[in-house]
Write a structure and sequence with these properties.
With 173 residues, the chain is mainly beta. Helix content is 9%, strand content 36%. The protein has one helix spanning 60-74; strands spanning 16-18, 24-26, 35-39, 45-50, 56-57, 90-91, 94-99, 105-110, 115-120, 126-132, 143-145, 148-154, 160-166. Strands 1-2-3-4 form a 4-stranded antiparallel sheet, with no helix packed on it. A 4-stranded antiparallel sheet has the order 7-8-9-10, with no helix packed on it. The protein is globular and about 50 Å long. The N and C termini lie far apart (65 Å).
Length: 173
């Protein structure tokens, strides 16, 4: 028998970031909520950021498709009979963390309309929310310098490009 494992689809794996001071910013494994802790490697929690955002439901067809994919890949190993109730009905709200060049924490968050970035100072003070219409590649963190965001994005054909987006305030009329 060969070994292996599968991550439970849509399960909150936890997001982690180490800042230049050595502090760790993270969400908790298994917690789908918007709760980020900054802590020291010795274990002291120095800050908690918590925001209320509604969870994002997963379409039944998408959830069923993900379960079918995992089941099919486990079948040759005789492990296709699993507890599929562990596949959550909602996506984790926090989808990523990164720091801007100026030291602000950027939280990639899912919303019903699209994806947004909530920006906090290094002391946890809310600065702004940046609306995102780009399909930013998940595995490479964007870079923010001043009013420019650099990121790898994918188009409708999954072709990757590097883009520079200018961050501008939305002016209400």
């Amino acid at each position: 028998r060969s070994g292996g494992y599968h991550v439970v689809p849509f399960f909150p794996q936890g997001e982690t970031l180490i800042d230049p001071s050595g502090a760790i910013w993270s969400t908790a494994y298994g917690d789908p909520s918007y709760r980020i802790a900054r802590w020291q490697p010795e274990g002291d929690t120095t800050l908690i950021i918590e925001t209320r955002r509604p969870s994002i439901p997963i379409a039944t067809s998408e959830r069923d498709s993900a379960i079918a994919f995992v089941r099919e890949s486990l079948e040759p190993r005789g492990a296709a009979d699993q507890d599929w109730t562990k596949v959550p009905p909602t996506r984790p709200v926090v989808a990523g963390l990164f720091l801007s060049e100026g030291g602000d924490l950027w939280v990639r968050a899912r919303s019903k309309e699209s994806e947004v970035f909530d920006v906090y100072s290094s002391k946890g003070m809310y600065r702004r929310t940046v609306l995102n219409s780009l399909k930013i590649y998940r595995w490479l963190r964007p870079v923010v310098r001043g009013d420019d965001l650099w990121a790898v994005v994918t188009d409708d054909f999954d072709v990757q490009y590097v883009v520079r987006a200018r961050l501008v305030p939305i002016v209400a009329h």
